[in-house]
Design a protein that fits this description.
The chain is α+β, with helices and mostly antiparallel strands and 491 residues long. It has helices at 4-13, 65-77, 177-194, 234-253, 299-307, 313-324, 328-334, 338-350, 354-372, 383-394, 400-413, 417-423, 433-446, 448-455, 461-472, 479-490; strands at residues 15-26, 81-82, 85-86, 88-92, 102-106, 112-121, 124-137, 141-143, 155-157, 164-170, 206-216, 226-231, 261-266, 271-277, 287-288, 295-296. The chain has 3 domains: 4-300, no CATH class; 313-423, no CATH class; 433-490, Arc Repressor Mutant, subunit A (Orthogonal Bundle), CATH 1.10.10.410.
Length: 491
């Protein structure tokens, strides 16, 4: 098998990948799409079920209005055209976690189509088309673990059966694993801003299947595609695509042919493995769902849904850069979710210097979150806490060193900044001139060689002395006062 570097070089010179993504997003409705069962995650197995979602004879589905509205709202945010009339269909196939033997979905007349997402590329931005967004019900879940006596048993949990989904199908216009990663990242942040889903990959509320083929560069016809399923992170999807591109090129160059199939990705090995041959769309024997009327979203209803559309990430980033004087990178981090962006804006409006708030998020908060392996939404320090700490540094009440120590304590204790600041007796940086002058004298006396270098013209030694003085004061000295007193001593 070629290495990723080898594959990248071969792809660039001789072959080009063609990638399309199918993203399933669970909608945050309280009840399922065709019945009143709860959608709550984590309930005991097979407790959130009823005759409708279990497919019992005579049980009839009724469409959840909120699911239709959430689906349309997400489609609008993805620049799609909302179709006035869409039709539900039965997608027929057998699987143990599909109790009816078919899935209610949409086929030739979906909820929405002809959308796009813009992603950053080296030359600027690229539009990746969205073929369609359609509504459907989720299937159940097969549980293969928890049987120490035998590895041949499988349990079925049908709580997820009937949970409302939208499926977002891209055009085959993604040209690299990196573009796929960017597409998914932008899609997730857009959906999060609409509030229609929590997009939790850990809980299965955002799932992605990737279709990948390769072809000689310049050829119009697509190569034979494979589908990669059940990958649980965007990074792994990118890695799986890189491997699969290399694998397909190796097969073609060795004289073999690509088999259309579904493959699984083993993240520990960094490889994909064949799971089953891939069914074509006509094998599902789609036909209109006889128990559901067409979904009609007329102009009045569409306008009402559109009024609920929030400010979307791209527009919000541009406004925040202009309004708060932060960088585009700051804005990118701070709009990773609508909740975080809302918190930052609330804090920025209260803070003396919004730019310092953004800087502290980058310089002090993100590293600690990464070390703990948690997301910014789980931070013990809230955006209001960051704003409070920024104001204390801005006013000279605490030093940068003291702020770092207080942030460390916040993460140790799992408490917000104001609480820890109060617990520590509201520490303040020292502005005692007499005490600082004594420390400065001691530092200068202890470093005669560096003092001689400074007086010989090496002015960079000033930073050395400031560092030593701050260290001797245990970070409690006012840096501004230290510089003023040191300048006088050295002058």
């Amino acid at each position: 098998m070629s290495t990723k570097a080898d594959a990248s070089m071969t792809t660039r010179v001789e072959f080009e990948p063609v990638i399309g993504l199918e993203v399933h997003v669970q909608l945050l409705t309280a009840s399922k799409i065709f019945c009143s069962c709860s959608t709550r995650f984590g309930a005991p197995p097979n407790t959130n079920v009823c005759p409708v979602c279990l497919g019992m004879p005579g049980a009839l589905p009724v469409l959840n209005r909120k699911a239709a509205e959430f689906g349309a709202l997400a489609a609008m945010a993805l620049n799609c055209r909302i179709n006035e009339t869409s039709i539900f269909a039965r997608k027929n196939y057998f699987y143990p976690d599909l109790p009816k033997g078919y899935q209610i979905s949409q086929y030739d007349r979906p909820l929405a189509d002809h959308g796009y997402i813009e992603v950053p590329v080296n030359s600027g931005k690229k539009k990746i088309g969205i073929t369609r967004v359609h509504l459907e019900e989720d299937a159940g879940k097969s549980l293969h673990e928890g049987f120490p006596d035998s590895d041949e048993k499988t349990a079925i949990d049908l709580n997820r059966t009937g949970v409302p989904l939208i499926e977002i199908v891209s055009e085959p216009e993604i040209s690299s694993p990196e573009e796929a990663y960017e597409y998914l990242s932008r899609l997730k942040e857009i959906v999060l801003h609409t509030g229609v889903s929590d997009c939790s990959m850990e809980e299965g509320s955002l799932r992605c299947d990737a279709n990948i083929s390769v072809r000689p560069r310049g050829q119009k016809e697509f190569g034979t595609k494979t589908e990669i399923k059940n990958v649980n992170s965007f990074r792994f999807i990118r890695d799986a695509l890189e491997y699969e591109i290399a694998r397909q090129i190796d097969v073609i160059e060795s004289g073999g042919t690509i088999t259309q199939e579904t493959r699984l990705y083993n993240a520990n090995e960094g490889k994909t493995y064949g799971m089953r041959s891939k069914e074509q769309a006509h094998d599902y024997r789609y036909f209109p769902e006889p128990d559901l009327l067409p979904l009609v979203i007329d102009e009045k209803w569409r306008a009402a849904i559109e009024r609920a559309l929030p400010e979307l990430p791209e527009a919000r980033r541009a406004r925040m850069v202009n309004e708060y004087g932060i960088t585009e990178y700051d804005a990118q981090v701070l709009t990773v979710s609508k909740a975080l962006a809302d918190q930052f804006e609330e804090a920025a409006k209260l803070a003396k210097n919004p730019k310092r708030v953004a800087n502290l998020v980058q310089s002090e908060l993100m590293g600690r979150l990464k070390a703990k392996g948690i997301e910014i939404g789980q931070s013990p320090i809230s955006m209001l806490g960051v704003a409070a700490s920024a104001d204390l540094v801005e006013s000279g009440t605490i030093s940068g060193k003291m702020l770092k120590d207080l942030y460390d304590l916040c993460f140790e204790r799992g408490k917000d900044f104001p609480a820890v600041y109060d617990e520590e007796g509201r520490p303040r940086q020292s502005s005692d001139t007499t005490a600082l002058e004594k420390i400065i004298d001691e530092v200068l006396a202890a470093n005669p060689k560096q003092l001689e270098q400074y007086r010989a013209g090496k002015k960079t030694m000033l930073g050395f002395f400031v560092g030593q003085i701050m260290k001797a004061s245990k970070g409690q000295a006012s840096p501004q006062l230290v510089n003023e007193l040191l300048a006088k001593k050295l002058g």
